[in-house]
Amino acid sequence: MPRLPLLIATTLAIAPLGVNAATAKDIHGYTGKAHALDGGRLLWVEHHFRYQQDDGKQAALVLYSCPNGKAFARKRVQGGSAQAPNFAFVDALSGYREGVRENHGQRQIYVQRHEHADEKTKSLPQAKRPVIDAGFDAFVHAHWKTLTAGHSVSLDFLVPSKQRFIGFSASKRRGAPDGQVRFRLKLDSWFSFALPHLDVTYARDSRQLRGFSGLTNVRGANGKNVSANIQFAASSFGSRSATELDKARQAPLDGRCSLH
Q: How far is CA 26 from the centre of its chain?
């Protein structure tokens, strides 16, 4: 069964995606707890930050921490468009890095399998309905009325490890908790029933993210993607300080979680 590393929910400092926390404005954040699908053991905690840069554009940062509080991965999202942003992710547990960046005016996908591997790059291909990484959240909000009405929406989702866009579809699913709505992202093909999918839940009124279940972009020490159920409590949403953002930006990635 193909394993396609998707993300909705992480990197070392990379110059094009750097952020001066002292100049960030309108900083907001929320926290997610990732649990194992089999048994519910806490695997990691995600600290999400969204903020406005000096140029007025939105950016984001996510810090991934082991249950003991030590960080092991980081993601920065900055540039590009809302649904197809540039991003930089590093998972220090496996040494895996991936992202989309600007290189001499051209957008480029890069992947590094582990810290001793060579970086592989490729020009970002064209796509009719491109969605990249955290841009899936913007995609959901842009198509909220259509999705909540029960209609399926197609998209081209970037799978960095494959260095190409793959056709997916998003649709509303039954069984969401009271006050929430669930959407499923799956391959847009006749054999999609046999492949992994992602379920994402949102608060119906506020449209805030509440849950994610499926294959994540976090890898274990064996280099394989980890499946998890991530919950984002409503009480975790709120304002964050520049100091908190700066700490998340500079935190050493020295955590060593057991994700198996």
A: 21
Tell me the pTM. Answer: 0.88
Q: What's the rounded Cα separation, in Å, for the pair 167 and 113?
A: 24
Tell which residue, 199, 238, 248, has the closest CA to residue 30.
238
**Please, what is the average pLDDT of the chain?**
88
pLDDT tens for residues 243-260?
Answer: 999 999 999 999 999 887
Give the span between the Cα atoms of 218 and 74, in whole angstroms: 10
Q: Is 141 helix (H, G, I), strand (E, B) or coil?
A: helix
Amino acid at 186: K
Q: How many residues can be counted in the chain? A: 260
Residue 2: its H or E element: none
CA angle, corner 89, sides to 126 and 112, nearest 5?
A: 80
Beta bridge partners, 259, equal: none
Tokens of 50: 């969204």
The residue type of 220 is: G
